[in-house]
Amino acid sequence: MSTGQSILEVHDVSVSFDKFKALDHLNFSMLEGELRVVIGPNGAGKTTLLDVISGRTRADSGQIRFNGQDITRMADFQIVRRGIGRKFQAPSVFPDLSVSENLALAARRKRGVLAALFQRRDPEETRRINEVLELIDLGRLRDQRAGSLAHGQKQWLEIGMVLVSRPRLMLIDEPIAGMTASEVARTAGLLRQLLGFCSVLVIEHDMNFVREIADRVSVFHQGALLTEGSFDRVRADDRVRAVYLGTEEGAHA
Ligand SMILES: Nc1ncnc2c1ncn2[C@@H]1O[C@H](COP(=O)(O)OP(=O)(O)OP(=O)(O)O)[C@@H](O)[C@H]1O
């Protein structure tokens, strides 16, 4: 549930690759406790938004404020420490470690590699890992090798690995790519449950899924915000239909 407090403000941000503007004077903001979904046709700048928030890509101009702090020029690890976690599309679990070992490693990553490898698990960390294991529905598989999990389970483990580091905002790029129908349904429930812990910003193409999970939807086009609002409002907007027209996603919108 949103607290009404702003958590993220992207103000007039531009990012260029050579002469191409991936973000073009973008303005975008989110409230704490919100699950926002960003949609838009291919090349609209959605992934670049996540890259620039998480410090992977530098803004050419403009400002990004998180939780009231200017993070525009911070390095990616500093941004993680400030409380922005990111789940990438590509898998990054350690396949030979167990599910719970992956979570333990992720919980300690913030404290540095040596701490991650040598520190004992404290009771608070154990409690948090158990809580996350229940949430991602992998409690009974806690001792199983992560490499042997099904695709959907690996994706949930990765979400869990971000969650144990206690972010205030989680960025998630296309969470249901390659999932079965039942995995998709479970992921929708999981993303909504994340709101008990952090705000969530998701990029997604699948409109049925967007309808199911989003509090608000932001539509990007050519590196800028075209419009935003409830799923139904955005879907009924002629400008949104126009930018999707003729694209593969338009067929599903
Ligand atoms: N590192 C890069 N170097 C050069 N061009 C890039 C780079 N990253 C992104 N771009 C370009 O910037 C534009 C916006 O890309 P971005 O990945 O943000 O779009 P998107 O909305 O996420 O698209 P998609 O839905 O296809 O993932 C694209 O035209 C892309 O080719």
UniProtKB/TrEMBL annotation:
CDD domains: ABC_Mj1267_LivG_branched. Residues 8-247 form the ABC transporter domain. The keyword ATP-binding applies. The keyword Transport applies. Keywords: ATP-binding, Nucleotide-binding, Transport. One of its GO terms (molecular function) is ATP binding. It comes from the Bacteria. It holds the Pfam family ABC_tran. SMART domains: AAA. PANTHER family: CONSERVED COMPONENT OF ABC TRANSPORTER FOR NATURAL AMINO ACIDS-RELATED (PTHR45772), HIGH-AFFINITY BRANCHED-CHAIN AMINO ACID TRANSPORT ATP-BINDING PROTEIN (PTHR45772:SF8). This is Urea ABC transporter ATP-binding protein UrtD. It comes from Thermithiobacillus plumbiphilus. The lineage of its organism: Bacteria, Pseudomonadati, Pseudomonadota, Acidithiobacillia, Acidithiobacillales. The gene is urtD.
